[in-house]
Amino acid sequence: MMGLGSAACGSPVAPVIEVRADAELDALIFERASGIAAESGACCDPHVSGGCEEEEVAACVCAQDPFCCQGEWDERCVAEIELLGCGGCGDLGEVDCCLAHGSASCVDEAIAACVCAYDAYCCEDMWDDGCVSAVESRGCGRC
Length: 143
Hints:
The chain folds into two domains: 24-90, no CATH class; 91-143, no CATH class. Helices cover 41% and strands 0% of the residues. It has seven helices and no strands.
């Protein structure tokens, strides 16, 4: 007698589950959850796909940080464009202190000085989400 979950030869039968990869849906979910555009491939904008539109810039950055081409092109990859001498993204330092960006500091010198007194990384490396959070949490300003 064959029992539930066994094949005619007596070995257990595993249920067949169809797994479907839907890259477009994954990208949309990521974009909504993270605020990073999935469709963008510009080198100066973070996006979920690896690499960026300018092949020479991407090759230069990825030679030092392979994640930028194998994983996603995030804020660190954008910052590395200038840090590694691979190109430039304009004057990213003139950015609102309430927005994360790939360069150090922000447009309001008083807020930047206040935040950087707690976290020098924000004025030495890049103004990331932690720096933006510190604007209010450290009493440096309002976002």
